[in-house]
Each structure stands twice: as C-alpha cells, then as structure tokens.
Amino acid sequence: MGATLKMAGFVAVGALAGALTTMQFQVAARGQLSPLPLEELQQLASVFSLVKSDYVEPVDEKKLITDAISGMVSGLDPHSVFFDKKSFKEFREGTTGKFVGVGIEIGMEDGVVKVVTPIEGSPAFRAGLKSGDLITKIDETAVKGLSLDQAVKKMRGEPNTKVVLTIFRKTESKTFPVTIVREEIRTQSVRAKMVEPGYAWVRVSQFQDRTVEDFASKVAELYKQDPAIKGFVLDLRNDPGGLLEGAVAISAAFLPRDVTVVSTNGQIADSKATYKATPGDYSRRGDDPLKKLPAALKSVPLVVLVNEGSASASEIVAGALQDHKRGTIMGSQTFGKGSVQTVRQITQDTALKITTARYYTPSGRSIQAKGIVPDVWLDETAEGNVFSLLRTREADLEKHITSGQGEEAKDAEREKAREAALKKLEEAAKSKEGPKPLPEFGTAEDFPLQQALNRLKGKPVVVSKTQTERKAEEPKLN
C-alpha cells in the first residue's frame, strides 16, 4: 500500500502526518530544568489511585500511564505525539517507505476502495490489478462503510500471508476475486515522465528515506530521453511533507550551491540552525545523490505546483524556490505547517515526537498557520474548485501554534465561501451521479498541470477568479 493515500474527497491526504522531522534517537536532558511542581504531581497520583480503585471495572495500570502521557503531549499542539509500540512502528514505516502489504496506492470512490495505481513490481502489480479497479471486499469483510485507514489496515499484515481482494473492474463489468501474498513493499514517492516533447513532470508525493535518490535517478533518466528539456514542472500537490534532508536536497537540485534553503529557531540550541544547498546539509549517507544531475537543471524554466495539501517539507521547497525567484509557484495557498518535530526515542519501542522549532524561508518568513501564497492562483478544474475550500489547513486545527510574526483576524469571507462550497457538494452528493472526482495528477485532464505547461510555453494561463489569500488565524484554545 502506498504510504501516501490519494483521496478524491474533502480533506487533502496526510496534511497532519506531514511532519518536518529530524530523527534523533536518544534521551538527554536539555538545559536547566525548573523544579517539578510537586502539588500537581500529587494530584496526578491521587487521580491515578482513584481511577484504579473506584472505576466501574478494573483498569490496566500501564494503559493509564500511557494515556496520561499521550494526553499531556497532545495538549501541546496538533503535531506533538507520544508513540506507543504500534504507532512508533507505523511512523518508522512512513518515513522509510517500507511496509508489508499488497502494493497499491488507493483512494475512495462511491464508498469503496479504488485502486489509483499498483506499485510497479509489487504483489498487486504481478496479480494484474489495474488503475480504476474497485475493491469491494477484503477477505470476507465488505469495504462499504470502512474508512480508508481501516481498509489499509486490513490489507496490511505479516510477510507471506494471504489476502483475498474482491475486484470490480468497470471497464469489463465483472467482479472477480484475487488472492495476493503480502510482502515487504518499498513505496515510490517520486513519479516522473515527459508529459509533452520538451516538457518534464516530476511529482514528489512524500519526503521519505530514499526520495532524493529516486528523484535524482528519475530526473537523470528524463534528461537521457531529452537532453534539451525546455520546461520542468515540480508537482508538490498533496505532499504532506516528511524528512528535512529531503526538502533541502530537492531545493538544492534547482538552486545555486550554498544558498540558504531554510532556517529553524526554537528554545534549545539544537533547534537553531540554517540549512544550505550544500551536500553537507542534505546528504545522509556521505555521498551526494545529486552530483550526477545535469547542470541544466539549475536554470531550466520551472513551475512548482502546490495546493492546500502541500505541507511541511513541501512548503520548505516551495518557499525556498519562491524566495530565490527560481521558479513560479502556481496553485493554491498551502497547508501552513511551519513547525519542526524532533523524534526522541524513549524506550526501544516508544518515542516522543515533539515540536522543537519553527522554520523560516530564506527571506525570514514564517509560514506557520499561513502557508505559501502562490505567484499564480489556479483552480482545481476548468469549472472551478470542487474540494479546495473544504480541505483542512493548519489554521483550522485546534491548539495550532502561531507564526510568531503577528496574526490576522479570522477570515469571515472564507468561512462563508467554505459553507457555500459544502452546501454545493452536499447537493451534488444527493444527485444520481454524485460529485465528480478530480482527475489523476499528471494526466491530460489535469487542469493545473496544463496551466503550468502554458506558463512554461508563454501561452495564456487560466487564472482563478475566486481564490484569494487566506490570512493566518489566531489559534482556538480550549
């Protein structure tokens, strides 16, 4: 299963999961700690004792403590999380891009799971699953009524175990079972192709452990196909973020050497840093994965596509390229996740992901709770926006931290537009056909991509007539 799950629904995929994450697996005292509040700790002990003795049924002591830790951390902000054994394993799978499953990227359509694309070489690919196939049952469980996450969990499992998927193939109007043996899957976070002669498209769907290596190899292959590429589209739509080094490296691929990509600032010394377009700041294995890329990539005309689902690491790339005037940012205002999470390992199987800093673009902008404002605004389709206003952004989240650079009042006009868009979508859902899903990224029906190509060719671009900048909002505190 793809670590990035595409949805043609209300919420952009993975916007919350896209942590700009630095991996630091150690436990250490940081600075001078103030004395512990003994009175409050005594209250905690008293509550623990009362729950244990007076609750209607026996409770597990370890679970109580874990829940207390989780509650303490979740009260900080939407991105700080305590990982228990299970969630820590899932988090590591997300950053490495490796997990055990069948090997498909999925979305939802008419209440069932739709195969967006089988991952090349995966068990699903070898079994003959195709883009557009609908999965109606997983083993004996009907998919109708399951959430996307629930369907994912049922298809994942242990290596060499079997799962039976019931497939409905619309193009052939038939339903049939497919038995697939699960195995370790390495997701592809980078897709690339020549969309037209002379024009390249590269999509980064998440910044994972091998994203930079995959990006370099795919871009090198594009230049083998056409050494004189005239225009380049970097597609970061619905990219929820990921590893910091990946964002710095992808930015460095297009920028002059040694220019600033991003800086971070927080309470502890380790959180104050500046990352530049130099191998020492993005190479995790000692070798520069970008060294074989052609020099032409530094100057090829560039468009970067973003939307409300572009978060965290993808916003770092867009912000760096925008500040250095390296390309044109096109699309919608991004998610607005301008904070850094660091993972501290607590035990062998548990860890704390905690917000340690805000990050800033090369010009010193904090995009926290605001996002990157595009240079050219685009709608999702030629008919206008379908789901754009309904997608959750950082400023919508409870307890989100502020940018630290001054906040604006809540955008009342946007709230009215959002309510109107929701009403329109509800009316469409009541019709027989229902709301039309958005075309797959990278296809001829992909309206924003076609406008990006027009920009590169010097042709007229159909600019959005309705989208405007969304101001940052004060956090809603409970």
From TrEMBL:
Annotated signal peptide: 1-17
Pfam families: CtpB_N-like, PDZ_2, Peptidase_S41
Keyword Electron transport: no
Comp. bias regions, Basic and acidic residues: 403-435, 467-478
Matches recorded under Gene3D superfamilies: 2-enoyl-CoA Hydratase, Chain A, domain 1, 2.30.42.10, 3.30.750.44
Region Disordered: start-end pairs: 403-445, 458-478
Ranges where the PDZ domain occurs: 88-170
Family: Belongs to the peptidase S41A family.
Protein name: S41 family peptidase
Provenance organism: Aquariibacter lacus
